[in-house]
Design a protein that fits this description.
The complex is a heterodimer. Chain A is mainly α. Chain A has a single domain, classed as MetI-like fold. Chain A is built from nine helices and no strands. The radius of gyration of chain A is 21 Å and the shape is flat. Chain B contains nine helices and ten strands. In chain B, strands 6-7-8-3-9-10 form a six-stranded mixed sheet, with helices on both faces. A four-stranded antiparallel sheet of chain B has the order 2-1-4-5, with helices on one face. The chains are: A mainly alpha, B alpha/beta. At the A-B interface, helix 5 and helix 6 of A face helix 2, strand 6, helix 3 and helix 5 of B. Bound molecules: adenosine-5'-triphosphate (ATP) and magnesium ion. The site of adenosine-5'-triphosphate has 11 residues of chain B, from strand 2 and helix 1.
Chain lengths: 218, 256
């Protein structure tokens, strides 16, 4: 039985709905990972020892263990201590925190490589260290890491398929459902791949737009 | 304190970086409206002294006073932070490499601190930015980013940024050293204008002609001490110390 793409139209809404979930989860997790990355970077560099130490453990947990395990931990584990999250929320949090830790590494390096004169100029005007970090140093660091963070976000999109294991009907799981009904794995997996590719292109386009916008202010 | 302090007063300033003693018992006072130049060879401690005045490089010994208030007083960490931020608002500083904030336009560079620290409204801030940028001849570039400006233009915006805090004292650390020769004059021009307005200034410079023309007093520093000081008419033409003569002679040769 060769390839037969004529089965696709009947299941196209499942696939499109899956696309919508994938986009939604990716965007939400990307925002969380970006904001979280900034907060984590500042904690890792400037928080008092008492906060930094437990934070190290948290960082290790998210960098040193499989994302799959982290998703299980958040979705199934937290229920035991009374936190019952909807699957898609657990997915967003898991993906978001996982990539926040990676973004944080990038942002930390960028913060440390902002010219020392920037902090000095801000302090000279009378800003406190915290104010200077917030208004002067961190915004510059964030601008500097937009390209590598963009790469992390592409990785995030691909890893969003993992949330299918906790039952979120995102693109990959939707494709599997369509395959279950039609026994046409090749067609639907190819279709899903094409969808990922298009979302990927859209993300790269957004990233290029952002980069162009900030290039003048670096 | 019972004794009278000058507008700016440095008493027995001592600074070491580890075992390296960079400032050795320097005392200096500056009257309100006075313009003091500091010259000296590289590594003599000029920047360190200047940066001690607003505590960017805290002294390891001695006192700095500004307008009757001790800058480097012994306070608890928290109180000291408050105090020093307050003091720094009164002291403008201009750096060799401008240190403009690259992610902000000229307007934002000028208004960020006043908005944050003095609670200016956007309208007040805009007015302030226009005023200050006009003063340094940069009004038409008000919405440009630093990356779109030449070195001389950047430095003029940096001066406007410092002036926007309405400081009592301005510190210049080789404000023109990083500039192409043809851009030096536009910055010097702005500094001369400040001199005419009787802004109190301490100017570290390698430009002897400029120092001679704007400063009321010039200090020659070498190896962490003030070797000689006096009005430029005397110091440049008739120095009493051998080290000063040596320095000026070398400098003249270098300039040729
Ligand atoms: N943060 C620092 N740590 C260690 N040594 C320092 C530090 N800052 C300055 N120094 C040293 O202190 C000495 C005086 O430096 P300073 O920058 O005050 O000299 P300067 O007179 O301004 O020189 P230049 O004309 O090159 O700017 C130099 O030997 C320098 O290496
Ligand atoms: Mg210097």
């Amino acid at each position: 039985m060769g390839l037969d793409f004529s089965v696709i139209p009947k299941y196209i809404d499942i696939i499109l709905l899956g696309c919508a979930w994938t986009i939604g989860i990716t965007v939400a997790a990307a925002i969380l990972s970006f904001a979280g990355g900034i907060v984590f970077a500042v904690i890792a560099l400037y928080a008092p020892w008492l906060i930094r130490q437990p934070f190290r453990f948290f960082e290790w947990l998210f960098m040193g263990t499989p994302l799959l395990l982290q998703l299980f931990l958040i979705y199934f584990g937290l229920v035991q201590i009374g936190i019952d999250l909807p699957a898609f929320v657990a997915g967003i949090i898991g993906l978001g925190l996982h990539f926040a830790v990676y973004n944080s590494e990038l942002i930390q390096t960028a913060i440390l490589s902002v010219d020392k004169g920037q902090m000095e100029a801000a302090r000279t005007l009378g800003l406190s260290r915290t104010e200077a970090l917030r208004k002067v140093v961190v915004p510059q660091a964030v601008r500097a890491v937009i390209p590598p963070i963009g790469n992390n976000m592409i990785a995030l999109l691909k890893d969003s398929a993992l949330v299918s294991v906790i039952g979120v009907s995102e693109l990959t799981l939707s494709a599997q459902r369509a395959i279950g009904a039609t026994y046409r794995p090749f067609e639907f997996y190819l279709l899903a791949a094409a969808c990922y590719y298009v979302i990927n292109l859209a993300m790269e386009w957004v990233q290029r737009k952002i980069e162009r916008r900030i290039s003048i202010s670096r | 304190m019972t004794d009278q302090t000058n507008f700016v007063e440095i008493r027995h300033a001592q600074k070491s970086f580890g075992t390296l003693e960079v400032l050795k018992d320097i005392s200096l006072s500056v009257e309100r409206g006075q313009i003091v130049g500091i010259i000296g060879s590289s590594g003599s401690g000029k920047s360190t002294l200047l940066r001690a005045i607003n505590d960017l490089d805290p002294l390891t010994g001695g006192e700095v006073w500004l307008d009757g208030v001790q800058v480097n007083q012994a306070l608890s960490h928290r109180q000291y932070e408050k105090h020093i931020n307050q003091m720094r608002q009164q002291v403008g500083m201009v750096f060799q490499h401008f240190n403009l904030f690259p992610h902000m336009t000229a307007r934002e560079n000028v208004t960020m601190a006043p908005k944050m620290l003095k609670g200016l409204s956007q309208a007040e801030a805009d007015k302030l930015a226009e005023e200050q940028l006009d003063k340094v001849g940069m009004l038409e570039r008000i919405d440009y980013y630093p990356s779109q400006l030449s070195g001389g233009q950047k430095q003029r915006v940096a001066i406007a940024r410092a002036l926007a805090m309405k400081p009592k004292l301005m510190l210049f650390d080789e404000a023109t050293s990083a500039l192409d020769p043809e851009l030096v004059e536009e910055v010097n021009h702005v500094m001369r204008k400040l001199a005419e307005e009787h802004m109190t200034m301490i100017i570290v410079t390698h430009e002897m002609d400029f120092a001679a023309s704007v400063c009321d007093r010039v200090l020659f520093m070498d190896q962490g001490v003030v070797v000689e000081e006096g009005p430029p008419s005397l110091l440049f033409t008739n120095p009493t110390q051998t080290r000063t003569r040596e320095f000026l002679r070398k400098h003249l040769e270098g300039a040729k």
